[in-house]
Each structure stands twice: as C-alpha cells, then as structure tokens.
Amino acid sequence: MKKIIISMTLLNLLLNSFGSVFAQEAPAPYIITQDINYESISLEDCLNILQNPTDETLESESINKTIEEVEAELQSVQEQYNEINNHIALLESGEVDSLDWANSQLLIVIEEVYALQAELDPEFMYLSEEEQLKLVANHESVLEWQAYIQEIQVALNQLIADRNVVEQNYSNLNFTLNELQANKENTSQSKAAYNECQLYPYSSEYLSIDQILLNSQTSLNDYLVQIDSYLEKIIAKAYRKVAFEDIYRLYSRQLDQQALENALSDKPNIVLDNLAYETYSYAKELNLIDIETLAQYAQRAYIKNNNKDEFIQSYQKVINLKENQWNYINSINTEAFELIKSELVNYLNSNMHTNEEAIDLVRSIHQRYQVKLVFFDDSSQQWVINSMSSSGYYDEYVQKEISPQTIEETLSDESNSESETQSIDDITLDETLDEVPDNLAAPNDHLESLKDQLSNIRSNTNIKDLPKPNTTNSMNNNKNKNSSSNITNKGNIELPSTGERSPMTIIAIIILVLGLILLFSTLRMKRKKRESLQNIELD
C-alpha cells in the first residue's frame, strides 16, 4: 500500500512539473525585417550609376560571371576526375578485363603449358630451370597473354597520366576561384549603390549599341522576336505589368457609394504626395491593386464633393506617374531604344510590311511592353519613328474621357484585357586443358619459379576494346586446330520502378483484399458451424 501511495505522489509531482512547463508562455518568434533600405538612392544618382557604370562596377560584374564559369568548370573537372579514377580502379582490379584478372589468367595458362610440355615431351621434366623457362616462355598462349597484359598496362599508364593532368587542372582552377572570391569581397560602396539601383522595380539592364545585333534577312515574325529579346532586357518587368489601358479601365469603373465603402473598408488610403510620387517613379512598384485603391478613393471623394476636376486630376496624375516610369527606363538605355526604333522602321519600310497583319504584329509588341517604337502613317502608307522620348501612349490616355461603365461591362472589359495580354506574352579464360595425369610429376619441378618469372609484368588500363586471347583456343592448338567461341547473351534490362501505381491497380488490390477477408470469414464461420454440429452429434 505504501508503495502505491509513493508511486501516486511521484506521478503527481511529475505531472505538475510538466504542466508548469507547458503553462509557460512561448517566446515571441524572431521576425526578420522586411525593410532593408529606409532611404532610396535618388533617381539622378541611379541614372548616373546605371547609364555610366564605373570600371570597378564592370569589373565586379565580370568577376561574378567568371566565378560562375570557374565553378562550373571545377564541377566538370571533378566529374572527369571521378570518371577516370573509376576506370583506373576497374582496370587494376576489376572482375574481368583488369590487370589482376589478366595476371591470374596468365598463371593458369603457365600451369597448363607446363603440364602440356611435360605430357608431350618426357624429357621436359629433366631439363634445367632455364631450359624449361625458355620453352614455356616461347609458347604461343603465354606470349599472347603477356602481350594482352602489356596492352592493359599501356592503357592504364595513359589513364594515370590523364588523371595527373586533371588533378593539376583542378588545382589551378581552385587557386583561380580563391583569387576571384577574394577580389569579390573587396567590393566598394559604388558597387553596393549599383546593386541597389538594379533592385529597384523600374531599373533595367544597360545595353550598349554594340550589344544589339539585328538580322534583317528574316521574316517579320522572326525579326520581331529579335526585337522582343532586347526589349525584355531593357524594359523593367514592373513597368510591363501595368498598361495605360489598365489605369483607364480602373478609373472608368463606376461603383455606388455602398460598393465603394465595402471595397475600401480594409484598404489603407494611398496618397500620391511628392515623395510617394518620386518613389513610385523608380524605386517602388505601382501595381494594379494600388491603382484600383487610388481610383476608388478618388471616386468616393467625387461622390461626396461632386468635384469632377479632382477626380480627373487623380487619373491624370497616375497616367503621368506611369509616363515618368517610362522616362526613367528610357533614360537608362536611350541610345539602345533609338537604335531599335531606327532599325525597326527601316526593316518595315524596306520590306513593305504595311498590311493589317503586319500592323497588328507591331501593335502587339507595343502593347506587351507599353511603348510605341514606331507609328504607321495612313496617308503615306509608311512607318515613321517615334522621335519623342514619350512612351507613345501618354498623349492617347492623358486627355481621354472617362465614361461611366456598369460593373458587368467593366468585368467584360477586364476579361478581354487579360486574354489579350496573355496572347501578346506568347510572341516569344572459360575452358582449360584436359587434366594431366599425376604420373607426369618429375624430379625437376620448376613451375612456381617459371610462374614468378613469366607473370612479373604489371600493367593498368581501361581495355574494353582490347583483343583478349582465348585460353582454350591457344592450348588446343597443340592438340588440334579447332577453336570455339562462347557468346554470352545479356538479358533484357528493365527500367527502375518509380513505385507508382495507377489508380485502377490500387482499386483492384483493395477489392481483392476485401474479397479475401470475406472469403476467410465465410470459411471460418462454416468451420465453426461444422464443429458445433459435430459436438451435437457426439453428445
């Protein structure tokens, strides 16, 4: 009884201790801040850094690219070294076609030749060691196997030499990588600023005109694909994600006051003051959700104070902001854009691409990147360059009348816009000698000595394609000239199973298992019934 009381007391203490542990408040999770830079680098500074990169910046980019190339080469050299090493190992001590295997076969051949000589020449066993050595060493099969071993050795030596070269190459590459990584660590403040500007959503890669090569001897589709590849590099993705038409559509969507209140209930008010306007121009992304919020707040204000001018000014301010984003992107690669415009207009006019299909193709690439590179003049039926720094969409949308739309019409327009954007994005030895009778044993047995002397050739190589002597054939040449060859058939190799089963197979297995369970249950019930009947009969 005392033992039970003590056990219960200990159990209570243990449970209480666990309870106190679990009752403790969990520590707050460690949260990494999402804001890295509190002050943006100015637009002018970023333009200067991106458009006129310093030698140090270019050198740092070159170092990063070289490090990637050296690391890839190191990986390749490591794989090459492992492959050569595996070949050497197989050539030295593999189960077949190796140096150890060939030497073991030579010892067997020497024994067989020695026994055959003793069988064919009764005087052989009374000869001196040197005489026996000469006879055995000059036997055809021994010579063949020695030559074969020598071939293996030559091939093995070559592999070892190749491995040494790879080792030296790896050592050199590793040294180079260490030097590059040391240089990379010595980046300056200008490089840090360059990186920061590159991370801004409306920054893009700088391309010199020497990097732009357009092949004009091709079809319009292929030519526009070339244009597309360059525009993708120099027009920021954030800019492409919002179209001028999207801004117009969102401001044209008319909601009643209750719908506006519901839509804005969980949205913070976004104010485009001077600081926010500048930040959204290059350093912070303006997305469709932000624009929708701006449009809804502007519409709510319009409903309250009936000031249409303020509503229109809000719309025009967002259109201006979109154009400022283009101006920043264009400023980084002004020369590149001018070259692309000039080359495109020359190509279109010289090849007379003036039909509706060609116009639609050019329009589609304009819509994708939200910049009009060229215009088609209906009067002259010629293409002309967009000579302004403007996106080409600004004048079309800044003064565009905002007309009321029903929600159903707006949703329809939204669906059409999404499908159109999606379509635009797509433009892109087996046998041995007969047994020798025991009575051939003689006074001068120099077999072991001859084996040591004749099999002292070492060699190492990958010899898949080397000709292998046939022991049976070589030996039987002394008794008869018939040779035989054995062909080993390899079985079919199956692909490894991934362990997957089709749903029908799984269902069939489940049904089978259920059927077996029912069968066993039925048999067991019948057996019990039979036993009960037998017990009744016995009674």
TrEMBL record:
Keywords: Coiled coil, Membrane, Signal, Transmembrane, Transmembrane helix
Annotated stretches, region: Disordered: 407-430, 458-497
Residues that span the membrane, as ranges: 504-523
Coiled coil: 60-87, 149-183
Signal peptide: 1-23
Compositional bias annotation for Low complexity: 470-492
Cited NCBIfam families: LPXTG_anchor (TIGR01167)
Protein name per the record: LPXTG cell wall anchor domain-containing protein
Organism annotation: Ruoffia halotolerans
